[in-house]
Amino acid sequence: MKKTSTASRGSRRRLVAAAAALGVLAAACGGSDGDGGDGGEGTGAENDAGGDVEPIEITAATYIPPSYHDLYGGFETFMEEAGTASDGNITFDWYDSGTLLEADQLVPGLTQGVADLIFTTSSYISSTYPILGVYELPFVNEDFETQREALAFDGELRGFLNEQLGEQNLRTIGTMPTTFQWIWTADKQVTTPEDLRGMRIRVAGPLEGRTVEALGASPVTMSSAEVYEALERGTIDGLMSYIGTIPGRSLQEVISYGTAAPFGAYSVDAYVRADWFDGLPEATQEALLQAGEVYSQEGTDHMVQVHEGEYREAIESAGVEIVELDEEQMTAFQEAVQPSWDQWRESVSDPETADRALELMEP
């Protein structure tokens, strides 16, 4: 893996080309920093095709900074494994923290060839690819291990999702499901849907926004980099996010409560253009899929370990109270968010596709 400094990332020629492409992207989508597997093709550690891989340098990008070390270690694992599986013939020109493409530029940048591979959260792209919302739905699973099993690298759901994404020339080659999104608030404890009425809650994607609306709050879309100041100034009253956003943006300094329930979820995936991947030599594809499989397993293991230990301890040590709901309280939230399920079904063009995705998602 080749890591380059912020001041000298990549060749001058590449940066000039990227800058030209970004001029087009800026007009289409604007720029802001932000937050928030492959079915049936696992290669396993037995892959020994590395010597047959033709040398290739892959331009890879993410908006996520190293401060999210629950996630960042997974990116490093992917790139290191790809290098190992290819006997060093796969290298990476690596851009993190939005230095090449900011959060909402990543998929357009991938499409236009500014990057070959991106790591981004499903919440940022599920409005364009609504089928991904099947695992962002609130209360679709009650525990993380069930969620993780459904999104397994070699699972049927991952293969089905790639079929749908392939129709728009996108493909995942590794997926890291995050732990559930909770509701975090600055001043008011939330134990019922009524507690959220009138509150302004930051969200990272449209499905999260619909969930927040169903609970009676007003969704506010902004990058995760802006959340600290917004909470400090009272522009927003809280946010919906997975636990990693809190220490990743030092938000434990400006929030008081975290209500623990499966209000939503997303994944952090390695995405490529389907035609780009299909055009690679078979040995290169196998090495990248092996990297994706290791990323999906070991990256997720690392993330969970950080969340359950380091992050939760840091948050509670800062004085944030984690609110655990009883069964009656949980049921009230689950009933309140049902409209977001209906809205998701309507966003998927084919009802049968939505039903099939749900069938594969639910236990």
Please describe the structure with a list of short key phrases separated by commas or semicolons.
6-stranded mixed beta sheet, 42% helix, alpha/beta, 12 strands, D-Maltodextrin-Binding Protein, domain 2, 363 residues
Could you walk me through the main structural features you see in this protein, from its secondary elements to its overall organization?
The protein has 13 helices and twelve strands. The chain has 363 residues and is α/β, with parallel strands linked by helices. It has two domains: 2-178 and 267-309, D-Maltodextrin-Binding Protein, domain 2 (3-Layer(aba) Sandwich); 181-265 and 314-354, Bacterial extracellular solute-binding protein, family 7 (D-Maltodextrin-Binding Protein, domain 2, 3-Layer(aba) Sandwich), CATH 3.40.190.170. Helix 2 (69-85) runs antiparallel to helix 10 (282-317). 50% of the residues are buried.
SSE arrangement:
Elements: E1 2-3, H1 12-29, E2 56-62, H2 69-85, E3 90-95, H3 106-111, E4 117-121, H4 144-150, H5 156-166, E5 170-177, E6 181-185, E7 200-203, H6 206-214, E8 218-221, H7 227-233, E9 238-242, H8 245-248, E10 257-264, E11 267-273, H9 274-278, H10 282-317, E12 321-324, H11 327-336, H12 338-347, H13 351-361
Parallel strand pairs: 1-3, 2-3, 2-4, 7-8, 7-9, 10-12
Antiparallel strand pairs: 4-11, 5-11, 6-9, 6-10
